[in-house]
Amino acid sequence: MFIDRVRIHAKAGDGGDGSASFRREKFIPKGGPDGGDGGDGGDVILRADNHVDQLANLFFEPILKAKPGGKGSFRQRHGKSAPDLVVPVPVGTLVYRFPTPEPHDPFAEPPEDEPSQEPRAKKGLPDPTPDDLVADLDRVGAEFIICHGGKGGRGNIHFKSSRNQAPRRFTEGTEGEEAWFLLEMRSIAFAGLVGYPNAGKSTLLRAISRAHPKVGSYAFTTRHPQVGVVDLDDYRKTTVADIPGLIEGAHENRGLGHQFLRHVMRCAYLLMVLDMAGSEGRSPLDDLKALRKELELYNPELAARPWCIVANKMDMPEATAHMKTFKKKYPGITILPICAELGEGIPELKAFLQEKAEEEEEKRKAAAKELDSSNISGLSSGTPLIY
After folding, report:
1. Which of these, 63, 116, 296, 300, is most buried using a 10 Å CB contact count?
2. Using CB atoms within 10 A of its CB, is residue 154 exposed (0-12), middle (13-18) or buried (19+)?
3. 188 or 77, greater pLDDT
4. Structural domain spans, the chain
5. In whole angstroms, how large is the CA radius of gyration of the chain?
6. pLDDT in tens, 337-370
7. Quick one: 8 exposed, middle or buried, by C-beta within 10 A (0-12, 13-18, 19+)?
8. What is the pLDDT averaged over residues 152-156?
């Protein structure tokens, strides 16, 4: 089961209480205060780890609770601070604040709603808003503290004075932060394979990389995104994501459209994989128009990103006539004819990917230099597109 969205509850550790103690020894029966401070509670930290590829570990254990700090003791013994709870998450995880769910009342009567003619909404977590975003873990090793641990209390040694030489006052440790969060994973890759079901996206990913996605002769063989590493010339590499097939109405979450489309948001370049032979009974020209429309309706930024056409299944006789139509209809768009199953056109596609990845990487480096010259600190250049 592939899980790319999960709701978690995080609770940082409470701080330890300070101690109200006095020095008592054999020849010092009335010593001064010697109560120690309490230790700090542990933080709850999310860390991007490239060895984690989904959020299944948090789906089965959604409650994250750090340990509390130790209490202070006599002879100015300070309590031990608790270790931080570090939770690995996939690279490309977005962290959203989630409202606290209302407690369930088992004795409440169910509402008597009239039957509605509208279809029932799909079960699942609601889509978050951009204002709720608190962190974007888009590079390996990136960390974010979602809940800070409580501070330890002070012992009575801090409250002694010339007027009060035997204080019994101490402070308790503060409570650790507690909140609900929604974690959403988005695949990070340079290029994304976008197309209808059975267009040959998984077969293409097998042909250009070492990934082994499931391939079948039926629709929706791919149920979750997969990222493959593509070997290029000069010992360079880049990444390509296989996005599950889209259908009309994907921007309205039909056919799990939102679950698939959000993974395209991380891709800098889009490869529109089309069944140029129309073997599924659809026109490849209509498929392209529908795909471009779904991307634009879901997020206008996707429609503005660079893209090209990957004309698959060119070994079939019907593909030649459709290719001529495409060249007339889209004269300024790059069209790469391939046959993923037979391996035809794969070297040309890899060379094209390397060229575009290097161009995009140069743009990123130039933008980073401009920002560095403007003395803007704390900026991350993100995950490299080619390495």
Report:
1. 296
2. buried
3. 77
4. 1-102+120-185, 191-373
5. 29
6. 999 888 899 999 999 999 998 888 888 888 777 7
7. buried
8. 94
